Amino acid sequence: MAEFAGKLAIVTGAAKSNGIGFATALLLAQKGADIVLHYNSNAAAAETAVSKLQSLGVKAISVSADAASPDFGTTIVDATLKAFPNRKIDIIINNAAAVLFASSAFDNEGFDNIFHANVRGPLLLVGAALPHMAKPGGRVISIGTVASRIGSRFAGLYAATKGALNTLTFTWAEELGPMGITANIVSPGPIGTDNVPPEEHELVKRFRSEQQIKRNGTVEEVAEVIVFIASKGSSFVTGQVVGVDGGFSHA
Ligand SMILES: NC(=O)c1ccc[n+]([C@@H]2O[C@H](COP(=O)([O-])OP(=O)(O)OC[C@H]3O[C@@H](n4cnc5c(N)ncnc54)[C@H](OP(=O)(O)O)[C@@H]3O)[C@@H](O)[C@H]2O)c1
């Protein structure tokens, strides 16, 4: 039997075919999980993504919601319960994020929006899903960033949102642990998606100087680690920040 057969996973920000979210949804579906694929704006991409998942023989739906909106969690959970009545939510992957590059650490434009999308959004989703999660066995996996550990003037607010998400995750680990639910961060370094700056960017030069493996990672390399953390084999792993970054020597 497939490893994730009978499991139900919510993956946010998963419509883009070249993103970490879709790579994760695809790997979970290849291993038998049913998928609630969340997207923000790109309905056509979400439709294509859901068709690909369904072609693997699993059940998959898409749901649109703005992570910065106060009803983000209830919108996704209501759609999940409607499409999958009488099922528990086994896995939540908080992958959707507003990514903001800046020229200075003091460029605070968009502060409310990015904190709402990247911090309050996951908090609302986990809160709305909690009564319906598998207990024991549930998994909450949030996608962080190496920038939350090293900081960067090019991504100050973005890095700070992910730092807050790390800390929330430590708290979730404490609060959800007695229910048998684990909470972890998978923290990528530079990964070859639409979000990574070009090789000549000062931030990427810094990455390369501090990485033991001096390149961008692939979405598949991140998805493999996320799916391990989602698996039965990770049952004693919680409250961790797992770097998938080529080994930062100074972080
Ligand atoms: N790529 C990297 O180098 C890297 C490094 C470290 C961490 N990460 C993290 O990895 C995750 C995935 O990033 P990615 O590089 O794969 O980028 P991506 O393909 O652009 O994925 C981000 C997704 O987030 C969604 N999103 C953005 N703002 C949203 C909002 N307000 N409401 C709902 N959804 C929203 C987007 O949905 P729509 O397309 O539908 O708008 C998009 O699909 C993010 O958490 C990011 O912070 C990436």
Automatic annotation (TrEMBL):
Gene3D superfamilies, sorted: NAD(P)-binding Rossmann-like Domain
SUPFAM superfamilies documented for this protein: NAD(P)-binding Rossmann-fold domains
Keyword Oxidoreductase: yes
Keywords: NADP, Oxidoreductase
PANTHER family noted in UniProt: NADPH-DEPENDENT ALDEHYDE REDUCTASE-LIKE PROTEIN, CHLOROPLASTIC-RELATED (PTHR48107)
Family listed: Belongs to the short-chain dehydrogenases/reductases (SDR) family.
Protein name as catalogued: Putative oxido
